[in-house]
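Sat 14:20. Reprocessing the chain from the morning session after the first attempt stalled halfway. Input below, unchanged.
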Amino acid sequence: MLQTLQKAARALTLFTPQHPEWSVGEMAKALELPKSSVSELLSSLAEQGLLRRVGVGRYRLGWRLLELGQTLLKTTEFRDEARAVMQEMVAVWGETMHLAVLEAGTVVYLEKLRGQQGLQVELSGIGVRLPAHCSGVGKVLLAYQPWDAVLRVVGNDQLYPFTPNTITSLDALAEELARVRQRGYAYDLEEVSIGLCCVAAPIRDYEGQVIAAISFSAPTHRFRLHRDQYTRAIIEGAQRISERLGYYGGTSACKPTKSKSPSSVPVI
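Finished this time. C-alpha coordinates:
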Protein backbone atom coordinates (compact mmCIF):
# COMPACT_ATOMS: atom_id res chain seq x y z
CA MET A 1 0.00 0.00 0.00
CA LEU A 2 2.78 2.43 0.93
CA GLN A 3 4.63 1.75 -2.33
CA THR A 4 1.43 2.32 -4.30
CA LEU A 5 0.83 5.64 -2.55
CA GLN A 6 4.40 6.69 -3.27
CA LYS A 7 4.00 5.82 -6.96
CA ALA A 8 0.71 7.73 -7.13
CA ALA A 9 2.28 10.79 -5.53
CA ARG A 10 5.22 10.67 -7.94
CA ALA A 11 2.84 10.37 -10.87
CA LEU A 12 0.71 13.34 -9.79
CA THR A 13 3.72 15.62 -9.27
CA LEU A 14 4.78 15.09 -12.88
CA PHE A 15 1.81 17.14 -14.08
CA THR A 16 2.90 20.76 -14.51
CA PRO A 17 1.75 23.79 -16.54
CA GLN A 18 4.59 23.01 -18.94
CA HIS A 19 3.58 19.33 -19.22
CA PRO A 20 -0.14 19.08 -18.34
CA GLU A 21 -0.83 15.88 -20.29
CA TRP A 22 0.90 12.49 -20.15
CA SER A 23 0.55 9.23 -21.98
CA VAL A 24 1.03 5.89 -20.25
CA GLY A 25 4.29 5.37 -22.13
CA GLU A 26 5.66 8.79 -21.23
CA MET A 27 4.74 8.33 -17.61
CA ALA A 28 6.27 4.85 -17.48
CA LYS A 29 9.53 6.20 -18.85
CA ALA A 30 9.58 9.11 -16.40
CA LEU A 31 8.83 6.89 -13.41
CA GLU A 32 11.03 4.04 -14.66
CA LEU A 33 8.19 1.57 -14.18
CA PRO A 34 6.56 -1.06 -16.43
CA LYS A 35 3.85 0.30 -18.72
CA SER A 36 1.37 -2.23 -17.41
CA SER A 37 1.85 -1.04 -13.83
CA VAL A 38 1.59 2.61 -14.82
CA SER A 39 -1.51 1.97 -16.90
CA GLU A 40 -3.21 0.35 -13.93
CA LEU A 41 -2.09 3.15 -11.61
CA LEU A 42 -3.36 5.95 -13.86
CA SER A 43 -6.63 4.14 -14.46
CA SER A 44 -7.18 3.85 -10.70
CA LEU A 45 -6.42 7.54 -10.18
CA ALA A 46 -8.89 8.41 -12.93
CA GLU A 47 -11.59 6.32 -11.27
CA GLN A 48 -11.12 8.41 -8.11
CA GLY A 49 -11.34 11.67 -10.06
CA LEU A 50 -7.72 12.59 -9.41
CA LEU A 51 -6.97 12.21 -13.12
CA ARG A 52 -9.17 12.35 -16.23
CA ARG A 53 -8.77 10.56 -19.53
CA VAL A 54 -8.40 12.83 -22.54
CA GLY A 55 -7.68 10.18 -25.14
CA VAL A 56 -6.56 6.61 -25.49
CA GLY A 57 -3.92 6.12 -22.79
CA ARG A 58 -3.61 9.87 -22.16
CA TYR A 59 -4.37 11.71 -18.91
CA ARG A 60 -4.67 15.14 -17.34
CA LEU A 61 -5.28 16.19 -13.75
CA GLY A 62 -8.83 15.56 -12.54
CA TRP A 63 -11.33 18.04 -11.15
CA ARG A 64 -11.35 16.24 -7.80
CA LEU A 65 -7.97 17.85 -7.11
CA LEU A 66 -9.54 21.29 -7.44
CA GLU A 67 -12.15 20.34 -4.88
CA LEU A 68 -9.47 19.06 -2.52
CA GLY A 69 -7.44 22.21 -3.08
CA GLN A 70 -10.39 24.41 -2.14
CA THR A 71 -10.92 22.31 0.99
CA LEU A 72 -7.27 22.79 1.92
CA LEU A 73 -7.49 26.55 1.44
CA LYS A 74 -10.69 26.84 3.47
CA THR A 75 -9.37 24.76 6.36
CA THR A 76 -5.86 26.21 6.62
CA GLU A 77 -5.90 28.12 9.89
CA PHE A 78 -3.03 30.47 9.23
CA ARG A 79 -4.57 31.51 5.90
CA ASP A 80 -7.66 32.80 7.71
CA GLU A 81 -5.54 34.62 10.27
CA ALA A 82 -3.36 36.11 7.55
CA ARG A 83 -6.30 37.18 5.42
CA ALA A 84 -7.84 39.15 8.29
CA VAL A 85 -4.64 41.17 8.77
CA MET A 86 -4.09 41.53 5.02
CA GLN A 87 -7.58 42.96 4.53
CA GLU A 88 -6.86 45.65 7.10
CA MET A 89 -3.54 46.48 5.45
CA VAL A 90 -5.01 46.63 1.96
CA ALA A 91 -7.72 48.98 3.20
CA VAL A 92 -5.05 51.35 4.59
CA TRP A 93 -2.42 51.15 1.87
CA GLY A 94 -4.45 50.31 -1.22
CA GLU A 95 -1.75 48.04 -2.67
CA THR A 96 -1.77 44.41 -3.80
CA MET A 97 -0.83 41.85 -1.14
CA HIS A 98 0.16 38.19 -1.41
CA LEU A 99 0.37 35.25 0.98
CA ALA A 100 2.61 32.37 -0.10
CA VAL A 101 4.21 29.14 1.09
CA LEU A 102 7.08 26.99 -0.15
CA GLU A 103 5.83 23.63 -1.41
CA ALA A 104 7.47 20.98 -3.59
CA GLY A 105 10.29 23.33 -4.57
CA THR A 106 8.20 26.31 -5.69
CA VAL A 107 6.34 29.25 -4.21
CA VAL A 108 2.58 28.65 -4.05
CA TYR A 109 0.29 31.65 -3.66
CA LEU A 110 -2.51 30.99 -1.15
CA GLU A 111 -4.04 34.47 -1.11
CA LYS A 112 -4.05 37.61 -3.21
CA LEU A 113 -5.82 40.84 -2.27
CA ARG A 114 -5.86 43.92 -4.47
CA GLY A 115 -6.45 47.40 -3.03
CA GLN A 116 -8.02 50.41 -4.69
CA GLN A 117 -4.74 51.55 -6.25
CA GLY A 118 -3.21 48.08 -6.37
CA LEU A 119 -1.42 46.92 -9.47
CA GLN A 120 -2.85 43.91 -11.30
CA VAL A 121 -0.02 41.38 -10.96
CA GLU A 122 -0.52 38.99 -13.86
CA LEU A 123 2.00 36.36 -12.77
CA SER A 124 0.40 35.71 -9.39
CA GLY A 125 -2.93 34.28 -8.25
CA ILE A 126 -4.35 31.78 -5.80
CA GLY A 127 -2.81 28.39 -6.56
CA VAL A 128 -0.20 29.80 -8.94
CA ARG A 129 3.37 28.53 -8.59
CA LEU A 130 6.55 30.47 -9.28
CA PRO A 131 10.26 29.74 -8.78
CA ALA A 132 11.46 30.86 -5.37
CA HIS A 133 14.69 32.67 -6.27
CA CYS A 134 13.15 35.73 -7.91
CA SER A 135 10.30 36.98 -5.70
CA GLY A 136 10.24 38.66 -2.31
CA VAL A 137 8.12 35.93 -0.72
CA GLY A 138 10.29 33.27 -2.32
CA LYS A 139 13.51 34.73 -0.98
CA VAL A 140 12.01 35.03 2.49
CA LEU A 141 10.94 31.39 2.44
CA LEU A 142 14.35 30.23 1.17
CA ALA A 143 16.30 32.37 3.63
CA TYR A 144 15.22 30.30 6.61
CA GLN A 145 16.05 26.95 4.98
CA PRO A 146 19.41 25.15 5.32
CA TRP A 147 21.58 25.72 2.25
CA ASP A 148 21.36 22.07 1.19
CA ALA A 149 17.57 22.42 1.23
CA VAL A 150 17.85 25.58 -0.87
CA LEU A 151 19.94 23.70 -3.41
CA ARG A 152 17.29 21.00 -3.63
CA VAL A 153 14.75 23.70 -4.40
CA VAL A 154 16.66 25.79 -6.94
CA GLY A 155 19.01 23.16 -8.36
CA ASN A 156 22.67 23.51 -9.22
CA ASP A 157 22.24 25.16 -12.61
CA GLN A 158 21.95 28.82 -13.53
CA LEU A 159 18.75 30.32 -12.17
CA TYR A 160 16.15 31.40 -14.71
CA PRO A 161 16.31 35.15 -15.50
CA PHE A 162 12.78 36.60 -15.61
CA THR A 163 14.25 40.08 -16.08
CA PRO A 164 17.77 41.57 -16.27
CA ASN A 165 17.48 42.15 -12.49
CA THR A 166 16.82 38.52 -11.54
CA ILE A 167 19.44 36.73 -9.45
CA THR A 168 20.93 34.03 -11.68
CA SER A 169 23.90 32.62 -9.74
CA LEU A 170 24.01 30.53 -6.58
CA ASP A 171 26.70 32.74 -5.04
CA ALA A 172 24.56 35.85 -5.51
CA LEU A 173 21.53 34.01 -4.14
CA ALA A 174 23.45 32.89 -1.04
CA GLU A 175 24.54 36.49 -0.37
CA GLU A 176 20.99 37.74 -0.83
CA LEU A 177 19.51 35.13 1.50
CA ALA A 178 22.07 36.05 4.17
CA ARG A 179 20.93 39.68 3.92
CA VAL A 180 17.30 38.61 4.21
CA ARG A 181 18.01 36.63 7.39
CA GLN A 182 19.94 39.54 8.88
CA ARG A 183 17.32 42.22 8.27
CA GLY A 184 14.17 40.08 8.45
CA TYR A 185 12.60 40.99 5.09
CA ALA A 186 13.25 40.70 1.35
CA TYR A 187 12.85 42.91 -1.68
CA ASP A 188 11.94 42.07 -5.25
CA LEU A 189 13.21 45.02 -7.26
CA GLU A 190 11.83 44.30 -10.74
CA GLU A 191 13.21 40.77 -10.54
CA VAL A 192 10.03 39.01 -11.71
CA SER A 193 8.52 41.76 -13.83
CA ILE A 194 9.81 45.12 -15.02
CA GLY A 195 7.81 47.91 -13.43
CA LEU A 196 6.88 45.85 -10.36
CA CYS A 197 8.56 45.83 -6.93
CA CYS A 198 7.62 44.23 -3.64
CA VAL A 199 8.72 43.74 -0.05
CA ALA A 200 8.04 40.54 1.90
CA ALA A 201 8.36 39.32 5.49
CA PRO A 202 8.10 35.92 7.20
CA ILE A 203 5.15 34.47 9.12
CA ARG A 204 6.10 32.17 12.01
CA ASP A 205 4.12 29.52 13.84
CA TYR A 206 4.01 29.11 17.62
CA GLU A 207 7.36 27.30 17.54
CA GLY A 208 9.03 30.13 15.65
CA GLN A 209 9.28 28.23 12.37
CA VAL A 210 8.79 30.24 9.18
CA ILE A 211 5.73 28.71 7.53
CA ALA A 212 4.68 31.42 5.07
CA ALA A 213 5.38 34.94 3.84
CA ILE A 214 3.33 38.00 2.97
CA SER A 215 4.24 40.85 0.63
CA PHE A 216 3.26 44.26 -0.69
CA SER A 217 3.49 44.66 -4.47
CA ALA A 218 3.48 48.09 -6.07
CA PRO A 219 4.50 49.84 -9.30
CA THR A 220 8.17 50.75 -9.23
CA HIS A 221 7.63 54.52 -9.14
CA ARG A 222 5.30 54.32 -6.13
CA PHE A 223 7.41 51.71 -4.38
CA ARG A 224 10.46 53.95 -4.57
CA LEU A 225 8.53 56.79 -2.94
CA HIS A 226 7.18 54.71 -0.06
CA ARG A 227 9.75 51.93 0.25
CA ASP A 228 10.57 52.53 3.91
CA GLN A 229 6.90 52.83 4.88
CA TYR A 230 5.97 49.66 3.00
CA THR A 231 8.85 47.82 4.66
CA ARG A 232 7.81 48.80 8.17
CA ALA A 233 4.18 47.97 7.40
CA ILE A 234 4.89 44.48 6.01
CA ILE A 235 7.13 43.60 8.97
CA GLU A 236 4.45 44.79 11.38
CA GLY A 237 1.75 42.86 9.49
CA ALA A 238 3.76 39.64 9.45
CA GLN A 239 4.42 40.02 13.18
CA ARG A 240 0.71 40.48 13.88
CA ILE A 241 -0.15 37.33 11.95
CA SER A 242 2.60 35.39 13.74
CA GLU A 243 1.27 36.51 17.10
CA ARG A 244 -2.20 35.29 16.13
CA LEU A 245 -0.56 31.90 15.54
CA GLY A 246 1.03 31.94 18.99
CA TYR A 247 4.49 33.33 18.21
CA TYR A 248 5.76 36.01 20.60
CA GLY A 249 9.47 35.73 19.98
CA GLY A 250 10.03 39.36 19.06
CA THR A 251 10.21 41.32 15.87
CA SER A 252 12.55 41.12 12.91
CA ALA A 253 15.92 42.79 12.63
CA CYS A 254 14.25 45.91 11.25
CA LYS A 255 11.86 46.77 14.08
CA PRO A 256 8.49 48.06 12.93
CA THR A 257 7.18 51.44 13.89
CA LYS A 258 3.65 52.69 13.69
CA SER A 259 2.97 52.94 9.98
CA LYS A 260 1.10 55.72 8.23
CA SER A 261 -0.81 55.56 5.01
CA PRO A 262 1.01 56.68 1.83
CA SER A 263 -1.06 59.85 1.59
CA SER A 264 0.17 61.08 4.97
CA VAL A 265 3.86 60.19 4.92
CA PRO A 266 6.65 62.44 3.69
CA VAL A 267 8.28 61.47 0.40
CA ILE A 268 11.77 60.06 1.01
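The chain has a mean pLDDT of 84.
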